Amino acid sequence: MTLHELAKELNLSIATISRALSRPEDVAPPTRQRVLAAVHRHGYTPHGTSRALRTQQTRTIGVIVSDIRNFFFANLVKAIEDEAKANGYALLICNADEDSAKEETALQLLLDRKVAAVINCSTGANPDLLRAFQKSGAILVDLDRESGLTNIDTVVLDNKKGAELATQHLIDLGHRDIATIAGPQHLSNARGRLAGFSEALSGRGIPVKNRYIQFGTFLQQSGFACAEKLFALRRPPTALFVANAEMAAGVIVFLRERGIAIPRDISIVSFDDSFWARYMDPPLTVVAQPMEKMGKSTMEAVLARLRGSKPVQRLVFTPELIVRRSTDSLQR
Amino acid sequence: MTLHELAKELNLSIATISRALSRPEDVAPPTRQRVLAAVHRHGYTPHGTSRALRTQQTRTIGVIVSDIRNFFFANLVKAIEDEAKANGYALLICNADEDSAKEETALQLLLDRKVAAVINCSTGANPDLLRAFQKSGAILVDLDRESGLTNIDTVVLDNKKGAELATQHLIDLGHRDIATIAGPQHLSNARGRLAGFSEALSGRGIPVKNRYIQFGTFLQQSGFACAEKLFALRRPPTALFVANAEMAAGVIVFLRERGIAIPRDISIVSFDDSFWARYMDPPLTVVAQPMEKMGKSTMEAVLARLRGSKPVQRLVFTPELIVRRSTDSLQR
Q1: Whether ipTM exceeds 0.95
Q2: B327: which of A300, B64, B267, B276 fits an S-S bond (Cβ 3.0–4.6 Å)?
């Protein structure tokens, strides 16, 4: 497709299209959106080269994470970058801060730059937008969370299994008053972890009590607030499964302030083997994700797709329970 | 400059130049290097547009960090990205792993993608290469470490001051047998921290003993190894200043294995207020860097330069000592 044909299709002047691409701030947003959408739809490049060639020209992969300061995403990105670099690709990184508007901005920004593919740790809030991009021919891969799209390469952990391992460990130690601090339920990983917790209890004939299920935001402050609620109960739990490391940090701050000892007063298992989990006193029992393997496999899935591989891949990784000293037998 | 003129200058066919740009893996590396260098030198684009226009087209900034998994770099990148996004720029991230060859690869990869600027946390090992890129018109900004180039925008901490604060704090607590685990001395920040340590001691009339200065790599294992050497001395130190958080983690593992208590047996101050420093038991006394401000200012310096601002900026940020419970008065 030539610039002329594009101008004709959009009923715009060549100058306007040129400006929308080179000085987007000088063009009214609706016009700009139309041009960018069309450019992406047609895989248009100044030389009118094929989509494959265009892809090779950028050799750039977009990655949308929640927050690069979270060690989990930093580890994924490092592994993706190692594999990308080895194949001549560079990474464009965006933080979505668990905010659907920011995810949308990030997607737009990545596609404006004609990335060869987008790896998305989705907020789960923009399925229509993602579907539109996918239809336009963009390569999308879901990582860590599922966007809800069908026909999309997906790299995730078996989150349900991880929560089961954690909860069964607490049951095996004699605990029955077991609580969880769950993540936000619009995220597929948070849903999987809550399901694993509930099913592990039910499977061993232990009733699942609503007051022992608190919902956090995956952020530290919410861990503090949820722990406060659990310890305000007439009968506080003797064991706790926390659905991510940031919330576990908040729980620990709360317990220290109150002088509640781990594991004497409460046993704690957290999701994610953060850098600091082993340096805590006591070191934390955790459910570890194979972050390096997940990152590498994600980039491999992108490369396979760029090479034209057709079948959709769904890779589910297995978590591992690492028992340290924050969990102990129920003290009667 | 047209493709024809470029071909003539390099004495290559247009097809070869085209291939070097679109399918670099099909072109012999020396030829490819020549083409890329020339393309960058001339600011060549397919339309022969001006350099300014080309810069606006990419609206992409390259960032080379040591390792994105290190919370310090993750925090810098998050702050840079927030400011970049607000101005319509996206970030290409490369990890150099403190390896000069990887830094070179990263620079090449960023410049191949015609980034508008490169923010470099330099290994300090490629001054000639950086100088060549700077001469070709590339915008470079030094962050955290100084590359050794003159006439380059620079955003750093007053590392000497930070080490002085840490060391004076230990002296004020009555310590005289004070050791340091320094970083690799080819890095400007590591040099500044060692200078601050030595001068703080000298300034108070305390002799600087060579056996109390151990050199690590800024990586965790080296912290362990250096602590081992210090505690093998006939008279081990009673206080220790560790030049970064990763090495401090290694020190803590060593002390725990040996049953050496903090702060009873040894007081510890570490550079960098890592996420986990406050969750340790005891919480660590640290020298904190204003990471968010530093990241934001770096991107602002890039934007000023892109707008054509001429004077070279050198921004030096002031560290802060945060006293927690890993440091205590000398027990006699």
Answers
A1: no
A2: B267
